[in-house]
Amino acid sequence: MPTIDQTELAGILAAHQKWRNGEPGGERADLRDADLRGANLRRANLHGVDLHGVDLYGADLRRANLRGANLRGANLRRANLHDADLHGADLRDADLHGADLRDADLRGANLYRADLRRATLYRAKFAGCNLDSVSGIVWAAVGPTPEGRTVIAVWHGPEEGIIVHCGCGRNTPADALAACGDTSDPKRCRKLVKRVVKDVTAWVDGLETA
Question: DSSP letters along 82-131, please?
Answer without folding.
Answer: TT-B-TT-B-TT-B-TT-B-TT-B-TT-B-TT-B-TT-B-TT-B-TT-B-
